[in-house]
Design goal:
Helices cover 44% and strands 19% of the residues. The protein is an alpha/beta fold.
């Protein structure tokens, strides 16, 4: 069976319809190389979907069909924080941050200074939190693998173009060739994305962070991790000691702070 046929079978499940074809094909290729099945059966499709679910669907909700309506309302009233909050509430991670966004950005900018530009990798709907940054202007580059979220973000950037110059694009964080073409920025966000790319081991995140610094893509990288399990129980040890050891081993400095749902690492070169 050709990869495109496998792709079509995977996307028959509506949960994966908005994921980029490039990303799914990458997962299919990896699965086929690792398992080399003589014939693709339902169990193979199930395994591929399971990998996609673990890596890319953990923080999604089912409210995406409401976002278009909310964006239309925002066009009429771009200053409405109420509409912004409703959009942010359509994604689990951004909904969890609603009460903490002001605190988060204050803590980050105290260390980094107010940025003129941000790159957000694995952004979800986080760029829509821009009003909580208390910035007069910003250049914002947003990257994700969900085509529908990318469409929403570009509509949002168009609505808010008087304050934020933004662009959203599809990007697979395994594709270092494309990552090398990222524009330089003041800060890179890696929020709740490291646990998703480090499925088998921690090598991918270490390579990514070193690559970004070595290519001078940012002065600071701000990474975050959940402090609660998927079942919403508080973790006994929310700090990622392996991550801290990795940063020290690579001669990277870091400062941390925590909210009720997330721990943040503000990383820079020593």
């Amino acid at each position: 069976m050709e990869n495109i046929q496998i792709l079509n079978q995977v996307k028959q499940n509506k949960k994966y319809k908005t994921l980029s074809d490039e990303l799914i094909l990458s997962e299919i290729k990896e699965y086929l190389n690792k398992n080399n099945p003589k014939k693709i059966i339902k169990q193979d499709i199930k395994h591929i979907r399971s990998k996609l679910h673990r890596a890319y669907s953990t923080y999604q909700t089912t409210k995406k069909n409401k976002i278009t309506l909310l964006l239309n309302q925002l066009k009429q009233n771009p200053e409405s924080l109420d509409i912004i909050n409703k959009i942010l509430s359509s994604n689990i991670s951004t909904k969890e941050r609603l009460d903490d966004y002001k605190f988060i950005y204050n803590k980050i900018f105290q260390i980094t200074d107010k940025p003129k530009s941000i790159i957000d990798l694995g952004c979800g709907l986080n760029p829509i939190s821009f009003p909580y940054m208390n910035l007069q202007s910003l250049i914002y580059y947003a990257y994700d693998i969900d085509e529908q979220d990318i469409k929403f973000l570009n509509e949002f950037f168009n609505i808010m173009k008087n304050k934020i110059k933004g662009k959203a694009e599809i990007l697979n964080l395994r594709d270092f060739k494309k990552i090398s073409n990222l524009p330089p920025s003041d800060i890179i966000f890696l929020w709740k994305i490291i646990d998703l790319i480090d499925i088998d081991n921690h090598k991918p995140s270490e390579e990514l962070i070193n690559f970004l610094f070595n290519k001078n893509k940012a002065k600071f990288i701000v990474a975050s991790f959940a402090t609660k399990t998927i079942t919403r129980k508080q973790m006994n040890f929310p700090k990622r000691k392996w991550f801290e050891f990795m940063l020290k081993r690579n001669n990277l400095d870091f400062k941390t702070f925590q909210t009720k749902n997330e721990i943040f690492y503000i990383i820079s070169r020593i």
